[in-house]
Amino acid sequence: MTSANSLHLVAAIERWPIAGSFTISRGAKTEAAVVVATVSDGTHTGRGECVPYPRYNETPEATLAAIEAMGAKLNTGLSRAALQSAMPAGAARNALDCALADLEAKASGQRIWSLLGRAAPQACTTAYTISLGTPEVMAEATARAAHRALLKIKLGGDGDIERIAAVRKAAPKSELIVDANEAWTADTLERHLAACADAGVTMVEQPLPAGNDAALARVKRPIAVCADESVHDRRSLSGLRERYDAINIKLDKTGGLTEALAMADEAGKLGFGLMVGCMVATSLAMAPAMLIAQKARVVDLDGPLLLAKDREHGLRYEDSLVYPPDSLLWG
User: Fold this and answer.
1) Cβ neighbours for 3, distance < 8 A, ≥ 6 positions apart
2) Active site residue: 250, 253, 269, 309, which one?
């Protein structure tokens, strides 16, 4: 692990237009606002990208400031290991953690997975997201994507049973997972889970609000339930075992690849199924998550597919397959 002195840090907010709009239960957006951290040792350069999450009161401006505030410590040799305690988990640490990992790989002339003692990542099947809308609009979008092996359906509460039925009719052969984004209630939980099971849905993400999900431990779950907003890093795992069957690891929540890998290892020991997820962002944000994808039952790394344009040297997508990053992109 590199601990070079005099690392130079540059960070910037970038805005990437979304193809159309992206809608979930908490609202719609037409661009992805990301923050990119670039760390250089004078010879080699590493980059990391994060997406500030309004759900956790993160903004691009505050995230940029948090990254830039680490410049002095990086200049005196802050290592990736030391970064884990120097910053809290979240988007800002993710960008720096991934930038430092990329720098280590570039400086060593090896791929990051070799440095970390991990197997080289292989291509895997990624979900493709269908935004929240009326059952008719979602069915139309689903029909256009029905050739894909795995579809992730955004739900939003009222009308979800009709949405599920419409989507299944439009994609009879695709595996379906759904993401309620905390929009269901304890009163509607069993009815919605039953509708998902009837439609052959294999997993539902975060049906109830984080912190108000105790009902999941009291009902029979006919399909797997995956924690998203209820899980962040390793410290949040132990209290979820009675409520969830799987966890969604997102690097913007864990605060980077370092914690995400440790969390994936720990979750496996505790018996959780694994999902790896993303925010809408470029391939630079997806690339580190490909290491987590190798252990995941469900991979949801379609962020660049939702953009009008990806960055240079982006990940290669072929239908539902996503391939590991080229070293020109990351790692």
Assistant:
1) 77, 79
2) 250
Tokens of 222: 């006919």
Sign of CA dihedral 173, 194, 229, 132: positive
Q: Per residue in 228-237, pLDDT tens?
A: 999 998 988 9
Active-site residue (options: 29, 106, 152, 154): 154
Helix (H) or strand (E) holding 64: helix 60-68
pTM value?
Answer: 0.93
Residue type, 110: Q
Closest CA to 24 of 97, 130, 122, 102: 130
250 is catalytic: yes
Tokens (6 digits) for 228: 């998203």
Span 69-96, mean pLDDT?
Answer: 96
Distance CA 190, CA 327 (A): 46
The C-alpha atoms of residue 198 and residue 210 are separated, in whole angstroms, by 26
d(CA 72, CA 128) in angstroms, rounded, equals 40
Q: Is 154 a catalytic residue?
A: yes
